[in-house]
Fold this sequence. Notes:
Helices cover about 40% and strands about 15% of the residues. The chain is an alpha/beta fold. It folds into two domains: about 1-170 and about 370-385, 3-Layer(aba) Sandwich (Rossmann fold); about 170-370, Rossmann fold. It has a seven-stranded parallel β-sheet. Strands 10-9-8-11-12-13 form a six-stranded parallel β-sheet, sandwiched between helices.
Amino acid sequence: MKIVTIWNTYGPYHLARVRAIDQAFADDSIICFSHCASNHQDYPFFRDMLENHEVISNRDSSELNFFSSFLATLKLLRKHQPSLILTCGDERPETLAAVIYAKIRTKSVKVFLMLVNQIDDHPRKWLYEFIKSLYLKLFDGFLIGGNTHLEYLKHLGVGDRKVAFGYNCVDNDSISALSNQRSKQSIEADDLPSSKYFLCVSRLVEKKNIPTLLQAYAIYKQSIDHLGDRQDFDRAQVWRLIICGDGNLRDRIIDQISALNLVEDVMLAGRIDDLGELVQYYNSAEVLILPSHHDEQWGLVVNEAMAAKLPVLVSQQCGCSQHLVEDGVNGWRFDGNSITELADRMIWMHKNQDRLADMGENSWQIVQRYSPANFARQLQDLYELVI
């Protein structure tokens, strides 16, 4: 049996899933299709390749069109003749090609759609959703993150029996191992501050909601500066804010940092491509914050931070918040549109810092439900069910 996985490009998240599938389907072979030779500009770190990797269109993404990508995918599928195809993106030509190929081969080929959409992640048009509901009936199964994605599928008329959970996972064990290589006391990297800090790992784009984070941080800083009990020096010390990422709002964010008088308190670390380097930031942070306010279907940086045993503050607009965040246990959820609510959560974390180690341990326990191995087991069960 051959299994084909299709993503636009392959990076650490995808490779963790592929390796887990390879172990779960030990007697079978896996072929990985990526859409084009170049990398998506928003995610330039997705550059990893495997020996069993096939490029659908050996051209730059700017040179592609739907029809040529569709035909190129069909050609590769005919070449490899898989029994199971895992594809991502219902609107993509590779996915349409996979469905048509499977229907031509009748019952011998199964197609699963890897889906992360939620009902409210962005405005939806009823006609498009109606057509989509018809299109989804052509798939044999769906691989999703959790209940919020299941609700969307039910909204489109897909039943529970065709669904497997656990899609939104990262390599928890590798991140934990990297984290354990250095304790917070042994960090010596020149670009990491010695003081405590909140951490945000995010592209600097509109949906990530960094301006709200900066305004909330300003309120937090003012509150801590006015702590009455100056004898408790540690609790009166303001934590810094480090933001790892880059994007088209960088200049605007720099201006906002200056306008809020936070130049000495906020550090823009830039894009961090290397996972080992990023884990250093997780390892020496106190809390991860993800403040996205729309169109954040999951937020895998939360998985990463929890694998590094960090407490988390995650907006309720992020798809992962209902599944990975237990209020008061490993962090807090908040309304991504509320500056004051986020500020209050940051202040709570600061004033309750003696609880953070236990909350970090709880993060590790919770994220184990979302491991690549669990994803692969769920995939196995779904495949056995549909055949």
